[in-house]
Amino acid sequence: MKKQWFLVFLAVGLLSSGAVKAEALSLPKSEKSYMSQEIVVSATKTREKRKDISNSVVLIGKKEIEDSAAETLGELLANHSGLDMRTYGNYGGAVQEIKIRGMSADGTQVFINGINVNSISLGTADISKIPLDSIERIEVVKGAGSLLYGSGASGGIINIFTKKPGKERMDMTVKGSYGTQETYDVSVQHGMSLGENTGYYLTLGQNGTDGFRVNSDLLQRDASLQLFYDRGDTFNLSIYGDYVYRDYGSPGVVPPAGTADYFNGAGVKIYNDEAASLLNRYEEDDAHVAVKAGGKVTDKLSYSLLADYSYSKSYYYDRTYSNNKTWVMNQVNGIEGNLMFRPVDGTELLVGGEYEDYDNENEMLRIDDLGYDIPGTGSVSAHEVNSKAAFAELQHRFNRYLKVNGGVRYEDNSIFGDQDIVRYGLVVNATDKTAIKFNRGSHFKAPTMNDLFWPDDGFTKGNTDLLPETGWHTDVTLEQEFADNVFVTVGYFHWDVDDKIAWAEDPDQPTLWGYYWVPTNLNKYDAEGIEVGAVIGSYDGARLALSYTYTDAMEEIEGTDVRAARYVPEHSFRGDLSYSHSSGFTIAPTVTYTGKRPYYAGSNTTADPTEYLDDYWLVDLKISQKLNDNWTVSAQGNNLFDESYETYLASFFDRNTFTSALSPYPGAGRSFVFSVAYTY
Predict the structure, then answer these.
(1) pLDDT, position 604
(2) Which residues are CB-neighbours of 342 under 8 A, at least 6 positions away?
(3) What whole-number distance in Å separates Cα of residue 621 and Cα of residue 71?
(4) Which fold has domain 2-679?
(5) Are 471 and 153 in contact (CB under 8 A)?
């Protein structure tokens, strides 16, 4: 704590000194500036210049998305400063989650056009479902986010904004791609302005792959539509909806070398030495609809309204251990309203309220060794939770150098009662191109439906005695722009969580195939770290972006030693270089580094890890050539040097030998994709 406050006062002192010098020299204002031109909506739920918000942010625009060699949203976000993308093996349907500053993925809330897409069963968002082709820009707001976004925004939020057509024009793109492992992607995007203020944007897509492992195939179909009526500041109305269907295999870990094929009592092969599961499958349906309206009433008063509905249904077919079919259905209805008051110049007061109703249903059915339903073994559990909240945040700019903000939120959860959340911040603009930002806030996260109510399937079960997570998040960020082409950000963060919820094997609860996986409250979970980022360019078509994160995350289970948090890398790095020539040629390599990560088995309670997952480097490359005004061809390679790496570890129980072994989820090897796009 002393360390973070020392950094705060040191930074403010240095920048205050810089402000005096800048004033004395009468430095001119920049006509083109990251600080004054980059707009952030998600940090305050209203349009703010980057230099005016106290949060640390990552902003990714349309050009960066198009140039990137990333095949998925997770790969695009991975290893940006403070961001850690996790996936169980990088196979076709593998879940991709973003963790901010070492927190769990359920501490990151993900939104599409303001609609929360986190699962109420899991608390996390699988961003692999979100097609890159539909995205216009991305805002990642790091730090305490529970004031404006409630439970689960402990580490921050990611807001994804989809494409809209330009005014009085038609946009259309048809794209097809094909690559290794029979990977393909076909998409159509079509948008049109129907008048000066009205228009729509439609996307349709299908992609699939055989995957790099047995039973790692994927089929995905997706669609989205946005209708809008936009009168600028006066009034705007939009209706947005999307749908995603996915069907994919779940191969599990790679068993130890030499593992013999296992056949169940009916002679059906269940696993081999390539995959712990040859038959396990997932099927998912997700849909979201939202209506948003807003505008100015007067120069001093504006409003926004949002009503949304989300539906998800997942089906899991498990033939490895539990021999169950499981259906999980979630429905969320929500409404939110905000008023922004500007009583005097430099002062803004945001007042808002929201209500969310969550319905969860879990149905489970036993199946025999041939995969047929066993009559009379079904069970159904249903639960409903609702939360209501009111919040207010006041911002005031005293002068060109100093701005402060502070706010409070009251939230009432139907299971866990009320929570009071506070946040306050400070921005010092020493010059037009310098900002020091301080942000501190409390946070909380209620247990998810799965945490509480997952039925006993003989292998996993929920825990109704869980407590909600609570804690504080503090960060200090320095942003500095040099000339008009170099932008540097350096930040320090510290957060703590009491009663952290974690799923792990419980050595006190044995099962036939090992130990039960159950959620428990850790005694303590905290981290501190440093983030460094730089954007250099564009110089003659070249642009370089660099990100580095150091994270020191610790966990403590009651009665055990304090130890490094499981799976959190100390060091991560990302470098993106892009070069665009006037001929239409673009080349964009990306390099990422993920440091080693500690692992502890469920029965391990000492400070020493059971083992480490090794560090690794990945190199990706995209090359594209615009042939004319309409046609573009591109080629990209991922993991060009075919780096071998692991993403998670889990116990594999060999039913031939009745022994357990720690086995890895492997990352994907080298792959190539070739694409052709027609744009009108």
Answers:
(1) 61
(2) 299, 300, 301, 348, 349
(3) 11
(4) Maltoporin; Chain A (2.40.170)
(5) no
